Amino acid sequence: MIDQALMQPLLDRRFRFACDKSSPCFTRCCADLNLVLTPYDVLQLRTRLNLSSEAFLKSRTTVDVDQNYGIPLVKLRMNDDEMRHCPFVSPEGCVVYEHRPSACRLYPLGRAASQIHQGHKTAEYYFIVKESHCLGLNKEREWTVQEWIADQGLEKYNAINDIFIDMTAGRRAKMIKKLSEQQLQMYYMACYCLDDFRRFVFETTFLDRFDIAQDVLDRIRTDDTELLRFAFQWLKFALFGEKTLLLGNDVHAQESNLVHNTIF
């Protein structure tokens, strides 16, 4: 989460920033963090560490509850030291740099969308996160927002994160807060526990209930990113009644039946 007092608008979508080991503040931004991980962040980090979903979530994260929507928030577990350093920071920098989370890639920018619904962004905002310890903002190197996004490899992160955000953005918080404990477990499983979700798809009656194209099945059987995209589709169907999946020709189950046939 970002302190709103640190947010400064980008009036012309340009900013100055540079960071390297010669800066006195190098890695200072990797301490005292409250770093929320998106499902795609979790996927990338556990892939880098060669951990199962369960092992990564248990050893590397904590779970809070979003105060606005009541849904689980997965956060990176920081080191238990005075500065609460990121567990992946070293004197040489980030040891998981190629798989670093979205927020780390975006820094020193922040990103917000006023509403993302059914795949359409009504407004997208970028702003500077101006922290007093960061000397990189005083450097001469100038960027446009799009240049920074391309340089930091954010395109694929934003594309998948927007699908994730679309599940809740544009819906009334009161509606989401009505989700049952079991539905919230479904949400957590599909978003973060991809190993469990893959077993749910292929080792239960799931495929008897849904008409899933063979090429989709082939992709989600081995490709975690495709599985995550599919998980978002299923959640929109199971939690909010959107017609994102097709029921099989001989299936007449109602949405409530799907809830009671999870792996929990």
- Shape by Cα distribution: globular
Give the count of helical stretches. 12
- Share of β-strand residues: 15-25%
Mean pLDDT: 88
- Work out the radius of gyration: 20 Å
Number of strands: 9
Helix-strand makeup class: alpha+beta
The biggest sheet, with number of strands, parallel, antiparallel or mixed sense and barrel status, is:
3 strands, antiparallel
Placed side by side, the strands forming the largest sheet appear as 1-8-7
Order of helices and strands: EEHHEEEEHEEEHHHHHHHHH
- The helical percent reads 25-40%
Give the distance, in angstroms, between the N- and C-terminal Cα atoms.
31 Å
| Number of domain modules | 2
Q: pLDDT below 50 for ≥5 consecutive residues: which ranges? A: 251-264
